[in-house]
């Protein structure tokens, strides 16, 4: 059935799930560098198990050797500047931590019904 089709993402990886972004590994539906960008779901289960494990092993080896840098939010200044240059006015809203999604007050803040 076409509805059972599995769509791989398209993030290109090496055989260990590494991307061209330093320190970023991917596996599963987001990846697409091993079999191509689109395969039926017979490959997907095997792909997730084999390459997910490989990516996990490789990422764990990387983390053991990594030296943590100073934690900053400096990248946000550049992001805001890029938005301003593009004429985009961002809505600044802090995320709700563990909201009660059942309440009307939460729905009123998060869902634009009409």
Write a structural description.
With 114 residues, the chain is mainly alpha-helical. It has one domain. It has 3 helices and no strands. The relative contact order is 0.12. The mean pLDDT is 78.
Summary?
It is built from 3 helices and no strands.
| Contiguous helical run count | 3
Low-confidence runs: none
Total domain units:
1
- Fraction of residues in helices? 25-40%
- Estimated radius of gyration: 20 Å
Provide keyphrases for this structure.
mainly alpha; 114 residues; 0% strand
Write the layout of secondary structure elements.
Layout: H1 41-65, H2 75-85, H3 104-110
């Amino acid at each position: 059935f076409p509805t059972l089709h599995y769509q791989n993402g398209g993030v290109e990886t090496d055989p260990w799930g590494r991307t061209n972004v330093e320190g970023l590994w991917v596996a599963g539906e987001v990846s697409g560098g091993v079999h191509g960008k689109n395969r039926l779901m017979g490959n997907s289960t095997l792909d997730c198990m084999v390459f997910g494990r490989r990516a996990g092993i490789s990422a764990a080896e990387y983390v053991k050797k990594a030296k943590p840098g100073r934690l900053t939010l400096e990248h946000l200044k550049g992001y805001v500047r890029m938005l301003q240059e593009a004429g985009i006015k961002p809505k600044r809203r802090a995320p709700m931590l563990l909201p009660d999604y059942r309440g009307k007050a939460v729905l009123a803040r998060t869902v634009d019904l009409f």
